[in-house]
Amino acid sequence: MTKVIPIILCGGTGSRLWPASRESYPKQFLPLAGDRTMLQATALRVADPARFDAPIVVTNAEHRFIVAEQLAQIGSRATIALEPARRDSGAALGAAVRLAALRDPEAAVLALASDHVVLDEPGFLEALARGLPAAEAGRIVAFGIEPTEPTSKYGYIRPGAPLEGAFGVSAVAAFVEKPAREVAERLIAEGCLWNSGNFLTRAQTLLDELERLAPGIAGPAVAAADGARQDLDFLRLDPDSFALAEAKSIDFAVMEKTPLMAVTPGAFGWSDVGSWSALWEIASRDADGNALIGPTAAIGSTNCYVRSDKHLTAVVGVDDVVVVATQDAVLVTTRERTDEVKAMVAALTARGEPTATSASLVHRPWGSYQILDDGARFQVKRITVKPKRRLSLQSHVHRAEHWIVVRGTAKVTIGDETRLLRENESVYVPLGVTHRLENPGVIPLELIEVQSGSYLGEDDIIRVDDDYRRG
């Protein structure tokens, strides 16, 4: 079997599964359907070295360290390509496919979303093997999912005539965009399949079709890949070239126009997890149909999805509801209306609500911090620094800081002095003084930081030296 280069698209705004998912930390980075995050599960699905070459993961610069950390945790040696701007899936895939072709001119590529669930991985690999001969023969092979219900949440593919020499693969007769339920019922009766949005093809096939059908995407995307430069462990696509790309999805740019589309059916437990209701459908449920995740409880309730990160969350006497409680926000809706969560996030964003897009727990390449309390002239954070990591050497114009170590050992630089702080020890960092925090140990360092001053924003940082090359 020819080795395939997986291309994993790792973008998105994270609004459909708010408040667990936010723009700053979207759903692919969360363990929503198992012990692994959705990105990790996707990467592991294509990790067999006998079948797959190292993947190419496309993400934005803001999420680059999260992607690198999560892939490192599972031992994935991926190429992480950074989008300079949002140009939809057409440009992202165009640049990634060009990178694959530069690696191997004869490469077959498998385009995958990082935030989909596949419950039957052997079934997925079987569909891949079935579609590969057609892909190598010059087709673009979509994975059509055998429908389990007549839903309007997905687009549909109408299979056409079977392809010669490619058992189980058919030409695509038509695409149908998210039909009304009564239309979906008819489509299923006629043998139509859900469009998973994932596909398999030769790299050069897709590049040729992009050039023919969407030159406004192809030229800039290829130039961005050709002009990419290495930055630490990342590959930055050329920003000037990428900015010229037309913003359009790969479906509209190529899939719905090319005569090369083919489809192979699959029944491998696929879901795009586009709503909390979709997560309820694939979750383990109790005898009353309730999916209870985290510190939760339910009495006299049926068919509910209740999830909590920390606080005990209980429901009594309700049916078909969704309750999601995080550190800083709570969502309550019915399972029938979870598709409206995206509209709620848009409304919250429009009125300037910060929790619409950002969580109280903020991830950084060195660890994370969480805001515990704040006021007019103070802010209290819990800071966690990973072993052998350190923050930038920095100073502040408007604030002073107190650090109190609660776990581990901190190496602290303040001005010209460097010292070690152990549990229950503290230090004061005066306003304007250059300082750095480092974890020299082998366990996470945890401390409480109390900031005081006239302005406490994250942009009040003057970096003198930074391991991660941030401005």
Automatic annotation (TrEMBL):
InterPro entries assigned: GMPP_N, Man1P_GuaTrfase/Man6P_Isoase, Man6P_isomerase-2_C, ManC/GMP-like_b-helix, Mannose-6P_isomerase_type2, NTP_transferase_dom, Nucleotide-diphossugar_trans, RmlC-like_jellyroll
UniProt source species: Methylopila turkensis
UniProt-listed Enzyme Commission number(s): 2.7.7.13
Full protein name: mannose-1-phosphate guanylyltransferase
GO molecular function: GTP binding; isomerase activity; mannose-1-phosphate guanylyltransferase (GTP) activity
Domain Nucleotidyl transferase: from-to ranges: 6-287
SUPFAM superfamilies found in the cross-reference section: Nucleotide-diphospho-sugar transferases (SSF53448), RmlC-like cupins (SSF51182)
Domain MannoseP isomerase/GMP-like beta-helix per the UniProt entry, residue ranges: 298-348
Reactions catalysed: alpha-D-mannose 1-phosphate + GTP + H(+) = GDP-alpha-D-mannose + diphosphate
